[in-house]
Amino acid sequence: MRNMRLFLVLIVVLLIAAFTVQAQNKYIGVKMCSMCHKTDKQGKQLDIWQKSDHAKAYKTLNTPKAAEIAKAKGLTKPAVEAAECLDCHAPAYKVDAKLLDKSFDLKDGVQCEDCHNAGSAYKTILIMKDKAKAVAAGMREFKDAAAVKASCVTCHNEKSPTYKGFNFEEALGKIRHPVPKG
Fold first, then answer.
1. Residue pLDDT, tens place only, 119-167
2. The pTM is what?
3. 28 within 8 A of 103, measured Cβ to Cβ
């Protein structure tokens, strides 16, 4: 009976430790992710992102058009400082600074971890080689296209002042970045 109690206590401690580690994952930024995700073997995921509007999202907030929109919306701050804009153009702006690794740069816009969750606990090759381990370490797994779409429409919706409709299939075709089979 004593061994069983000790075993249960150990399990509880390990579970608490696992959740604490996952809860403390740090955002490492696209530069760290790109170290592995730029090769042909990985489907040149970095290239796909760099060519996307996600990579340019923060930069657009420094344009005259963004200033015009911010003024028309009655914002008291420039677009590049306004929460209403940063929510979608640099979502990690609201993350506690203690959870941003020195390699993370908000100016990189909508980056890997905005969809896949903070990556410090799953960034190593030993974990990333095993999808189940990566998910267990905090990587967000999208179960299906509906889950991906639900994430996308948190920004691509009527609340955006530049919204012109959202064709999910077309948009996904531009940003989809699977690892090639084989």
1. 999 999 999 999 999 999 999 999 999 999 999 999 999 999 999 999 9
2. 0.83
3. yes
